[in-house]
Amino acid sequence: MCTVTYIPVSDKVYLTSNRDEKQGRSPALAPAVYDLSPGRFLFPKDADAGGTWIAAHENGNAIVFLNGGWVAHTPQPPYRKSRGLVLLELLNSTMPYHYFLTLSLDNIEPFTAIIWEDGALYECRWDGKKKYEQALDTSRPYIWSSVTLYNQEVIRKRQQWFESWLRQQGTPLLEDILHFHQFTGDGDEKNDLMMNRDGKVFTVSVTAVVITAHSTDMHYLDLKITRLLRRN
Description:
By secondary structure, the chain is an alpha+beta fold. The protein contains 5 helices and 13 strands. It has helices at residues 83-91, 96-102, 152-169, 174-183, 223-231, and strands spanning 3-9, 12-22, 29-36, 39-45, 54-57, 62-67, 111-117, 120-126, 131-136, 142-145, 196-197, 201-211, 216-222. The protein starts with a strand and ends with a helix. Mean pLDDT is 94; it is low at 227-232.
């Protein structure tokens, strides 16, 4: 829930998320299809709370969350519901962006939601007190970094990495995007896209949703397993 990119390419769009988590967090369950009325959902499941940070609906809609609204906040649990369950509640609506506008978020921890709804893209933020929303230009790429882990200087630096990579890359393929999410940075392990802060908080996975007019695919890299393989 900590670094997200949106990249439109020809007849498809890519929504990709790096999940940064604390060392003690239970490993997520790999993506699977879940029958949740009124439709089927595809998502990796948070083993602790049962929600998710990224999901797609069989109707073609998709949502990805980042922790925090506009600025870093001090968590004040207990919260009424986990943000991962809020994501599924939003996606369960045929119009998740519009549902966000009416959904009560009292006692829900701040978050940023990137919503792909019926070919439109929206950025929706909840700062713990107030909602903010805007429609985005679907023809241009975007990158977001969680305000709970990255200050504005680092967020701007990551934006520059993204823009430079896009200029050099031209038309990226899925493997190019997954490579960007794993290996981009300047050697500062605490703030590179695949981050590690003394083994206490680090990037545990990369998930990419590929959406076309006719299909939705999800690609999942479990980086905890990758790290173990590298060590061995």
